[in-house]
Amino acid sequence: MFRYRYLLLFLLITFDFAYGQKTVTEKGAPVIVNQDTVFEFYTGQGLFTAKERASVINKRLNILISQLDFNPDSLVVKNDTSISTITYKSDLILAITNKDAAASELDRPQLAANYLAILKKKLGHSFESNSIKEQIINVLEAIAVVAVLLILIWVINRVFRLLKFRLLKSWETRVAKLAEKGAPVGYADRLLPIVTNLLRAGRVLIIILLVYLALPVAFLIFPWTKPIATQLLSYVIDPLKDIVKAIIRYIPNLLTITVIYLCTRYLIKLIKFIATEIESGSFTIKNFYADWAIPTYNIIRVLLYAFMFVVVFPYLPGSDSKIFQGVTVFLGVLFSFGSSSAISNMIAGLVLTYMRPFKIGDRVKVGEIVGDVIEKNLLITRIRTVKNEDITVPNATILGGATTNYTSSSQNLGLILHTSVTIGYDAPWHIIHQLLINAAMATEGILKDPKPFVYQTDLNDFNVTYQINAYTAHSHQMSSLYSLLHQNIQDKFNEAGMEIMSPHFTSLRDGNAIQIPEAYISKDYKKPGFKVDKEDKN
Q1: For strand 453-459 and strand 463-472, is the pairing parallel, antiparallel, or unpaired?
Q2: Prior bond to 450 cis, omega within 30?
Q3: Where are the transmembrane segments (predicted)?
Q4: What tens digit of pLDDT does each residue of 469-517 get?
Q5: Which residues, in sequence order, are bridge partners of residue 415?
Q6: What is the tens place of the pLDDT at every residue in 104-159?
Q7: 349, 378 in Cβ contact below 8 A?
Q8: Sign of CA dihedral 211, 214, 216, 220
Q9: Half-sphere exposure of 376 (CA within 13 A, CB side)
Q10: How far, in Å, CA of 452 to CA of 523, rounded?
């Protein structure tokens, strides 16, 4: 047997010299002991390629490790003039030629001695790990890992149980305090299951993480399961490494984005300061109203942030991705088609801002709605009526119709309140004028200067329409002022003994009695009757 092996070795060397040295492979063929690469071959030998040569040596080494009486010290190296061999008890393990030495930085005897030292070390450790004693130790270590894992799981369960108990106790105390203050406790009771479920989910996640980390530790104990441990760790470590590398590579772009954001932010702060000063009246700009300051600031802020996003977009991670660009286009189209009414309201809001038809607090009339403006933004205007009804009106509706502002001129010119009465033709018009003016002057909230005035607006078939016009600076009290004015008109006409009634109603009265309260009727008043002339035929 020994002779045949050396004959084979001689044939291999002969083929090497016959065909010359072959090209060195770019990637080495590994020689592996228990999933661990000990060294690599970069050249073939004889008819064998480097990969086939390494495979043959791997099989020989596995046979050696399986022997119960294996002794690494029995590995020896022999150097001849053209070849070096490593044998175990006269059995050939591998041969090193000058071609192998040419692929390294060592000469052939040195390379052979290096391979021998590596094999003794690796095979010795592998044999020790395969021994019964080492296996018993490995099993005990695995049991210890499982025991530690179970203890940690028990501790985690105890900690979360304690947290849940304290949470329930604190929750009951809080609910009791809320109940004492009259607050609805049903909402707090509905939140409790959510919080407890979050605690439970946190506990389960921590336990799963511990089990996942314990598995590689247990697999690393046994040599034949080390690749599994390495694979499990790679599932966690590789993504983390990729994230860290991506963050490091992204730092220059992040610094650029930070500089652009800070410049935009401080520019917006400067514009806000200027707008606030204009609004407060600290300084003015010709033909620029103070109430334009904040809306203009909001518009400029939106434009600056939009410009900042356009500049920053190329620096965002994944901005050059087709998927990212496709999603961006889809969202833009979706926003365009789905917000046409909103966009129209926003544009109307901008136009109304600079038209200045009203401001917050003004008493206005929009369509059939009369009330005070309590909110105004780019989309809607909210009006509170005299009945405390909050009505939301889209800005596009306001822009498309007429708006009456009762407050804008009430302070400098005065708001004119007007109401009408109809009096028969038998009443002197100058007396009616004076009675209406007196009623207006007696109304609290009506200005004495300018003085109220009367218009005769219609000459009807049976009566005349008189309209009293009076100035007021209290536009928000229109309803109460009208009520007081009507009361005073009744009082003044009753005091003058003049009824406010059209003549075509008088035919329905019994005896033509005057239609005013009895307190205003004089004592010598007599109810008139019908005058009948009777001729004496005799």
Answers
A1: antiparallel
A2: yes
A3: 136-156, 204-224, 247-268, 289-316, 328-355
A4: 999 999 999 999 999 999 999 999 999 888 887 655 544 455 567 767 7
A5: 472
A6: 778 888 888 888 888 877 776 655 555 566 667 778 888 888 899 899 999 999 99
A7: yes
A8: negative
A9: 22
A10: 33
